[in-house]
Amino acid sequence: MSSPARITLASNLNAQELAGLGLEAGEILPIGEWFVRPDAARPEAARLRRETPVVGAFETLVVTDPTLATVVATTSIHFNDVPSIIECQTSSGRVLVCAIAPERLATAPEIGRYLERLAAGGSAPTNTIGVGIVGYGPFGGMGYTHGLAATETDGLAFVGVCDSSDERREAAMVDFPTVQGHVDLASLSKADDVDVVIVATPPLFHAPIALELLRAGKHVVVEKPMCLTVADAEELLAVSAEVGRTITVHQNRRWDGDFLALRRAIDTGLLGDVFNMETFVGSFEHPCRWWHSDETFSGGAVYDWGSHHIDWILRIFGSRPQRVRAISHKRVWRDVTNADQIDVHMR
Fold first, then answer.
1. Distance CA 206, CA 226 (A)
2. What confidence tens digit (pLDDT) does each residue in 318-336 have?
3. Are strands 196-199 and 129-134 parallel, antiparallel or unpaired?
4. pLDDT (tens digit, 9 = 90+) per residue, 231-246?
5. Among 191, 192, 223, 194, which residue's Cα sits nearest to residue 209?
6. Helices (H) and strands (E) in the chain, counts
7. Which CATH number fits domain 129-250: 3.20.20.140, 3.40.50.10540, 3.40.30.10, 3.40.50.720?
8. What's the pTM?
9. 68-79: per-residue pLDDT in tens?
10. Which residues pair with 180 in a beta bridge?
């Protein structure tokens, strides 16, 4: 594990400072759209797009001393790979020298993540974490999605699945031939090769399942929402601390490219002070006829889809609301138990 790096634009350094980093300044190209490509061999590039467009001026650089400077991202200019991010070693630590303004790179979602990883320092995983899933669900559902992600992620292995349906449990073992099927939670909890368990059941069952797994010594990831009551959430956190195991919530929409770009734009001051935010999700079609539309199992529309949007708002503003009010309507869809429409206002 290396120490955090300083990030700077090439033109912020004079010729002598660049020379000390094993670099030499070249031509400064005017504002344009440049496709920045991470070094695919770097562990920091795992699960990132092959290249990402970034708009800005481009300050070309030449590596004069490869023992000091390593190219970690390139951009094709006139069909030649030109360094766009260079990692330099100094006696006082690492420096990431950028050919494009760092704030421009930071607001490009994929490259922003790469730059953050590079700055943080790290190394490729040296051990494998065994992943189990409770609630495999139908093909293409969250169980399959999590299993595929665990299979494709360095350092993770999808090793166990638990589902009350024989058909779905068997489907998981067909989709992932090396996975072990478990007929109940007790069996999965006793599996020595399972380190962390993803709970992908309907939300009503999140709390009791997560509690049993924590007490069995497993780390736990629960699909959003975490649970359906404050009391359950407090108990989960208390037990997690008591047994020394992690519990976290899979809020996958935190990693949407548009939300990441918005958050970086706010964090870097490009948008000024944000005082109001409006979000919307929905359609005029018939709601789904699965458990998502049954408030007993899902918690209702605010817990199901709304949790993504409330999470976005809380992360943007960084504080809890002082007042909350909501208005719901039940006018059309009488065959499901969720409200047809809900407005939530937070101040």
1. 7
2. 889 999 999 999 989 888 9
3. parallel
4. 999 999 999 999 999 9
5. 223
6. 12, 14
7. 3.40.50.720
8. 0.72
9. 999 999 999 999
10. 160
